[in-house]
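Hi F.,

I've been meaning to write this up properly since the lab meeting, where we talked about keeping a consistent format for the predictions we share between groups. The idea is simple: the sequence comes first, exactly as it goes in, then the structure tokens exactly as they come out, then a line or two of notes. No screenshots and no reformatting. I'm using this chain as the first example so we have something concrete to point to.
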Amino acid sequence: MMGKDGQPLGSNELFQRVRARLKAAVGEDVFNSWFARLELEEIVDDLAHLSVPTRFLSSWVQSNYAEKILEAFRAESAGLARLHFTVRVNGQARPRLHQAEAASEAIETEVAAAPATPRVVREAAVSTPAPRGDALSGSALDPKMTFDSFVVGSANEMALQVAKQVAHAAANNTVSFNPIYIHSSVGLGKSHLLNAIAWAAGAAEPGRNIVYLTADHFMYHFITAVQRQSALGFKEWLRRVDLLLIDDMQFLQGKSATEFGHTLGTLLTGAKQVVVAGDAPPRDLEMLDERVRSRLSGGLVVPINSFDLDLRRAIVTRRAEQAVSRFSDAHFAPAVLDYVARVVVSHGRDLDGAVNRLLAANQLTKEPITVALAERTLADLVRQRDARRVRIEDILRIVSRHYKVPRNDLLSSRRSRDVVRPRQIAMYLAKALTSRSLPEIGRRFGGRDHTTVLHSVRKVEQMIKDDGELAQEIELLKRMLEE
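Output, unedited:
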């Protein structure tokens, strides 16, 4: 077996590297909870055979972490493409794969091969060949994100109807509203709708060229194409798509954003459907050219609002039903569903996470799912409901207004003192008050490197220690943002 560096690699050494990658990706607590008892039995061709001690652990890991595990394996050995999970019987590892027919008592499942990230619903013909693993393709789609699994309410009903209309129109080779821009804060279903459009349109018309791309993958493809001097092939590939779906638009930066603007114009001129999702309205996407923002605003802009109590209750109920279908001994009382819907108000992903936590606690400890269990298990999610979610856009607005510096200057490369200091304070606040990583913050501040953000954060931390007046000023900005 060959490692990523081209050197021979034994199975044990490979698995230790994979475990290290998983621990770094998910953190030590999560790793110890779900991966500590994961064992590698053997590797046959492109398939890694893994075992776990319980049926619940097997189902949980496959449902929530199979793709992450496979990514870790592929990062260490590109030839691995599949995972095979079994439950160890009576504490013993099951027989090897070539003896599988003799192990009828073992519970086993195989995770289908995953193409090299990123991938696409329909592979597009590429005018210039690329090495394996780097071929032009779309981002990975989530098979669970379909229209059937989308829970509708007053907050997202219009967005759902628009998404279904797009999928239907694409299947019939027609275009209605173009472009379509869906925006909301995190965790309210934008990515779900884009995935659902791709699945529905692709299933209805297999011949259609449908591409779903996150902004990060768009930038990756563009930068790779420039480095390989194949930018023309990349542009031609994009312009041959029938339906282009771009997710996380707020992360698009630099020349990649310019290229997206050119591609958008070409696709719209050719009456090709474009659907974009972001966490702010087009007018607030400062990293985009004004013409691109205007083009997006001139299409159909569809917001998804914060979930009301009825929609949160519907989501929790649906997720609980799905959990019970997998684990028949689990039971969610109506009072528990009401409690979760009432106290977890941040976003849809936290609602999903709340149900998963309660299910895990129930299966691991056999304690009934009660309101008391929910109060203990979801304490951190409940605490979050009193804290206003601060966005980088809010920070830019408040800092710009407080220091009387134009927002565009905060994102620019200007180095004058009257701009640098507010910019550093804004980066510090972004790190202190949001969950964004340093690279994400850097992208939002004009495409800066994460080391620049780290330098700014440390600089402001030192200034706070040395300057009591500045410390009070920053505390004031924090209160303004959290009100």
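Notes:
The chain has a mean pLDDT of 77.
The CA atoms of residues 118 and 139 lie 4 Å apart.

If this format works for you, I'll send the rest the same way.

G.
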